[in-house]
């Protein structure tokens, strides 16, 4: 029998998650059945949606999330011992995965780690995983950028935003990013952003007008709130907005109020569309191949913020929600 550990959410979060909101439970995994694999977890992802979805589940619940692991025992010939898999089994150090269950949602279906051609396996929960697909499809499919257009990205130093900005540059766009520290601004400009603005210290409307005197064509929205209202009110006619998230409000007890958008939406005939990345689940391999190619060519430079140790999961999660990470926040076991 294999002993495993997992994080169980025992209390709904109030504001930022806290260590006392979790229990670490030790338990024995059952023997494998046909169609199952035993996975030793190597990398675990922490992402904003873990906070956003917290109130949707009754407690207690096992903390979900993406992970990369290696198969240590198998009763499915398609996944021999030594195979690396990406799954949504969450914050645990070992798990049993049923590889034949077709009744689960797309996010719950495990897949073999893409061929990363020598890159770090951690990218399977980052730039060549769900966040990478989120950037790739959420930006390219909804914004449909054209060379020469001006693109704005909020949450630009995060896992998704930093990729969106670089993809926009690959497509020949001018890119402006908003982030929360001067060090992050410097990094964004190092990876190709034409301008980066500190939303905590700048006069947002004035700074954006100076950076984009001819207006904004595409906006990739990770944060919501007043920042997004200011950006949307400077968009050009027929501008496109891809709404990925609203991390600025995830820890608020009450939703914040922001400037009305309807005058800009109507007068500029803007298109705003939210999305969940699983819309394009059948095309994820397309994104994986393209993202890997760009990384290997040096056109895309993913950055990881690595925390080591299973016992530090909550610290990594809270740090990401506070904006301490540059690029993808991931935990190494």
From TrEMBL:
Localization in the cell: Cytoplasm
Segments passing through the bilayer: none
Domain Enoyl reductase (ER): 15-331
GO cellular component: cytoplasm
Catalytic activity: pentan-2-one + NADP(+) = (E)-pent-3-en-2-one + NADPH + H(+); leukotriene B4 + NADP(+) = 12-oxo-leukotriene B4 + NADPH + H(+); 13,14-dihydro-15-oxo-PGF2alpha + NADP(+) = 15-oxoprostaglandin F2alpha + NADPH + H(+); decanal + NADP(+) = (2E)-decenal + NADPH + H(+)
UniProt-recorded Gene Ontology molecular function terms: 15-oxoprostaglandin 13-reductase [NAD(P)+] activity; 2-alkenal reductase [NAD(P)H] activity
UniProt-listed Enzyme Commission number(s): 1.3.1.48, 1.3.1.74
Enzyme class, UniProt record, top EC level: oxidoreductase
Residue ranges of coiled coil: none
Domain of life of the organism encoding this protein: Eukaryota
Keywords: Acetylation, Cytoplasm, Fatty acid metabolism, Hydroxylation, Lipid metabolism, NADP, Oxidoreductase, Phosphoprotein, Prostaglandin metabolism
GO BP, one annotated term: prostaglandin metabolic process
Stated family: Belongs to the NADP-dependent oxidoreductase L4BD family.
Subunit comment: Monomer or homodimer.
Protein's name in the database: Prostaglandin reductase 1
Gene that this sequence comes from: LOC118264101
């Amino acid at each position: 029998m294999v002993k495993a550990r997992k994080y169980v959410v025992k209390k709904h979060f109030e504001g930022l998650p806290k260590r006392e909101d979790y229990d670490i439970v030790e338990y024995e995994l059952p023997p494998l059945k046909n169609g199952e694999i035993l996975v030793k977890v190597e990398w675990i992802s922490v992402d904003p949606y873990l906070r956003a979805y917290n109130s949707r589940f009754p407690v207690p619940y096992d903390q979900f999330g993406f992970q990369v692991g290696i198969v240590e025992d198998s009763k499915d010939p398609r996944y021999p011992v030594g195979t690396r898999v990406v799954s949504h089994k969450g914050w645990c150090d070992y798990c049993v995965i049923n590889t034949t269950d077709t009744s689960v949602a797309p996010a719950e279906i495990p897949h073999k780690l893409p061929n990363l051609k020598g890159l770090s396996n951690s990218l399977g929960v980052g730039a060549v995983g769900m966040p990478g697909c989120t950037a790739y499809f959420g930006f390219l499919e909804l914004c449909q950028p054209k060379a020469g257009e001006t693109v704005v990205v909020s949450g630009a130093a995060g896992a998704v935003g930093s990729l969106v900005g670089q993809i926009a540059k690959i497509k020949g766009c001018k890119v402006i990013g908003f982030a929360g520290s001067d060090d992050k601004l410097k990094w964004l400009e190092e990876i190709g952003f034409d301008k980066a603005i500190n939303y905590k210290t700048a006069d947002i409307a004035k700074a954006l007008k100076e950076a984009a005197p001819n207006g904004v064509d595409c906006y990739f929205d990770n944060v919501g709130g007043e920042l997004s209202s200011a950006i949307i009110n400077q968009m050009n006619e027929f501008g496109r907005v891809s709404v990925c998230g609203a991390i600025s409000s995830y820890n608020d007890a009450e939703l914040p109020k922001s400037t009305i958008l309807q005058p800009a939406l109507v007068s500029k005939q803007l298109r705003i569309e939210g999305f969940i990345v699983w819309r394009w689940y059948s095309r994820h391999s397309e994104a994986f191949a393209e993202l890997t190619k760009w990384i290997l060519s040096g056109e895309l430079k993913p950055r990881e913020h690595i925390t080591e140790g299973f016992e530090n999961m909550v610290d990594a999660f809270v740090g990401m929600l506070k904006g301490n990470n540059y690029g993808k926040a991931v935990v190494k076991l």
